[in-house]
């Protein structure tokens, strides 16, 4: 009898490009994956993978088995999501978030998921937007929460919330001036998120659109690093306004009024359109109701 474990093994070996990757995805060993594939090959008396090659390439019959596995696994997941009660649903869900979400409301989201689905294991991954997009495409995560910067038909996107940023610097860095025109920012070193960051992409494009080009800038994918450099007086940066209010009030940072103001960074929860899941949809809804960039290191 064919088992779902055998079908999952074939499916993930193909999706992830190797037996070791499939073993990591399915929380088992590479030898266990090989054994399950071998059992299928013996059952149908035909090889599913061409073992003369270094890569895990399917045979013609293997292609048929992969398509069958994909269809049956999708039907299984849909059925489980629809009929199982939340308190008995058992799944591993991998959620990718960017650094600002991890610094603020991720613990609250994790607590909400555990309250609704106590037997679901959540694995959070923190990375830059571009890296998380690639992980989602490679089926290494199930859901990603990040700035809305990637218009891709392979993704199902749901609005979650928005973060407000402001230009900040060490008090006194710009003299007594409290107000600047955007083009005057080019007089100073700009500390910016790099192009792996969704926020970095958003604001780089926006600055170019209003004609601001800086010959003196420093880029990083880390929000924490940019906060530290700004506090140290290394330049001016756009930083999340609300969650850093205590640093502003304590005199570590100064908010500058710059015209025109920065646009909001809108966040979305995205998943792959070819892997629908009611559980993932429910988690995206929880993200929408718990999104809050107003306080750093929130308690779940």
TrEMBL record:
<feature type="domain" description="HTH lysR-type">
    <location>
        <begin position="2"/>
        <end position="59"/>
    </location>
</feature>
<dbReference type="InterPro" id="IPR005119">
    <property type="entry name" value="LysR_subst-bd"/>
</dbReference>
<protein>
    <submittedName>
        <fullName>LysR family transcriptional regulator</fullName>
    </submittedName>
</protein>
<keyword id="KW-0805">Transcription regulation</keyword>
<dbReference type="Pfam" id="PF00126">
    <property type="entry name" value="HTH_1"/>
</dbReference>
<comment type="similarity">
    <text>Belongs to the LysR transcriptional regulatory family.</text>
</comment>
<keyword id="KW-0238">DNA-binding</keyword>
<dbReference type="Pfam" id="PF03466">
    <property type="entry name" value="LysR_substrate"/>
</dbReference>
<dbReference type="GO" id="GO:0000976">
    <property type="term" value="F:transcription cis-regulatory region binding"/>
</dbReference>
<dbReference type="GO" id="GO:0003700">
    <property type="term" value="F:DNA-binding transcription factor activity"/>
</dbReference>
<dbReference type="InterPro" id="IPR000847">
    <property type="entry name" value="LysR_HTH_N"/>
</dbReference>
<keyword id="KW-0804">Transcription</keyword>
<dbReference type="InterPro" id="IPR036388">
    <property type="entry name" value="WH-like_DNA-bd_sf"/>
</dbReference>
<dbReference type="InterPro" id="IPR036390">
    <property type="entry name" value="WH_DNA-bd_sf"/>
</dbReference>
